[in-house]
Design a protein that fits this description.
The chain contains twelve helices and nine strands. It is of the alpha/beta class. Strands 1, 2, 3, 4, 5, 6, 7, 8 and 9 form a nine-stranded mixed β-sheet that branches. Strand 8 and strand 9 form a beta hairpin. Helix 4 packs antiparallel against helix 5. The relative contact order is 0.10.
Length: 303
Amino acid sequence: MKPLPASSGDLLADRRADYAEALFASQDYADAAELMLGAVELAPDWALGWFRLGEMQEAAGDLEAAALAWTMALKLDPADRPGSALKLALIGKAPPASAPPSAFVEALFDQYAPNFDTALVEKLGYRVPQYLDEAIRAVPGAGRRFRLALDLGCGTGLMGERLRPIAERLEGFDISAEMLRKAERKGVYDHLGKADLQQFAYAGTAPDLVTAADVFMYVGALETIVATVAGLLAADGLFAFSVEKLDAPGGFALQPSRRYAHSEPYVRAVLAGNGFSVLSLEQRVIRQDRREPVAGLIVVARR
């Protein structure tokens, strides 16, 4: 996918945007937004500039102006690589979205890829692959090596590194080409493929293990992907995954982070509706976010 331009292409507009970012960093949100507005007036076709303007206006408390900026960003980039539709939904200016734009997820992780492992593991205390590995190994009779494991949303291969010792064949799939390049360098997968999990299909041999580590917060509604996994998994196969835990009423909800959280009753209901029995479900702190712990659910189910 073509990267989202970080520059407006106009030197003066870029300078104004840089000054706006400096003001924003010092928490002078209103003046930052005013300068950023001047930048996009000089470069009116700059989608990322309009998106950033909306964020500054949101921080300044002007949600009406932010909505207009995000609407303009969405008009300029209908694929929605910045994630404008999610921001509009979060402030009540668009219907709740049951899934994020695929282009947003792809662009986000293409951008994260170069420093992903360091940022996630060392800075944010990410532990989902470790927790899923422990949960899989704790299943009675699961001490065997799995004939075929599919790692959905494999990213740079953090989960794959855990799966490699217990999988005879290991395949990874991700929407981000940059993430897949990082995973390929690690050499832990037998096959890597680019795939959007919202439209995932697999025509190979039925796997006896499917994992999705820290993936479903970028999927939203789980009915389709869980049904897909149920349809491709071998009988008695295991499905191991994590979600961010939703404590509020409802099945799942978009968070200010633009990630989705899912409630335990919803997760259990979707699994049961697709012929899965839950073998283990444990609440764990799965990462830090702005120095606050993020609660998640570590789940292993059997078809």
